[in-house]
């Protein structure tokens, strides 16, 4: 296997950005020095450069992620027209069902939320943009994994899977059986496998021109569901996935 080489300056900048992204409030330079192991002189040079590029911003006595980095990251869903197609389709879904719509990509064995359109009423969510979840426990992840052959899923996942809640599937064999059903129905469902009191319905969109494997979902509190409403929402999310596939 060919040896991979890092560019030290880029690795150090990434360490700083990851520390800021994980923090809920501005991070002091002293904390960043401890986290990254950089000398004070090197750290301040990097912080100054990142701030001038607007990748980070000085806030109070610390640093936060900057608007320039947000603009660059937003290109991930903008370049292949994914964001525009999603917003249009999600808006129609929300007008009909008044439930949140989420878009995610598969990254290894995790899903990463890349877009979201909120409903006109509050709902407890776990899908902040850029957040990750294990693919095996959420409907979006199951929809994305169902787009792969079983051999590829087996290569990625161990026999025993992490339990996020008591309802999470923890055996790969059981997950594979569920993925087979999803391939037939076109719909992935999970109830309280990620968060108590929340159900999620998802459908696989496909691979974008830029090579992203994407799926779309909606999350609904179980208390707002009955058999008729669940059927309507399931049909709506499958239709939305088909619409996005055509648009892309």
Automatic annotation (TrEMBL):
InterPro entries cross-referenced by the UniProt entry: GAF-like_dom_sf, HTH_MetabolicPath_Reg, Tscrpt_reg_IclR_C, Tscrpt_reg_IclR_N, WH-like_DNA-bd_sf, WH_DNA-bd_sf
Domain HTH iclR-type stretches: 7-67
Any one Gene Ontology BP term: negative regulation of DNA-templated transcription
Keyword DNA-binding appears in the UniProt entry: yes
Key words, A-Z: DNA-binding, Transcription, Transcription regulation
PROSITE patterns, alphabetized: HTH_ICLR, ICLR_ED
Residue ranges of every copy of the IclR-ED domain listed in the record: 68-248
Superkingdom classification of source: Bacteria
Residues spanning the signal sequence: none
GO molecular function annotations of the record: DNA binding; DNA-binding transcription factor activity
PANTHER family (alphabetical): HELIX-TURN-HELIX TRANSCRIPTIONAL REGULATOR, ICLR FAMILY, HTH-TYPE TRANSCRIPTIONAL REPRESSOR ALLR
Protein name (Swiss-Prot/TrEMBL): IclR family transcriptional regulator
Species: Caballeronia concitans
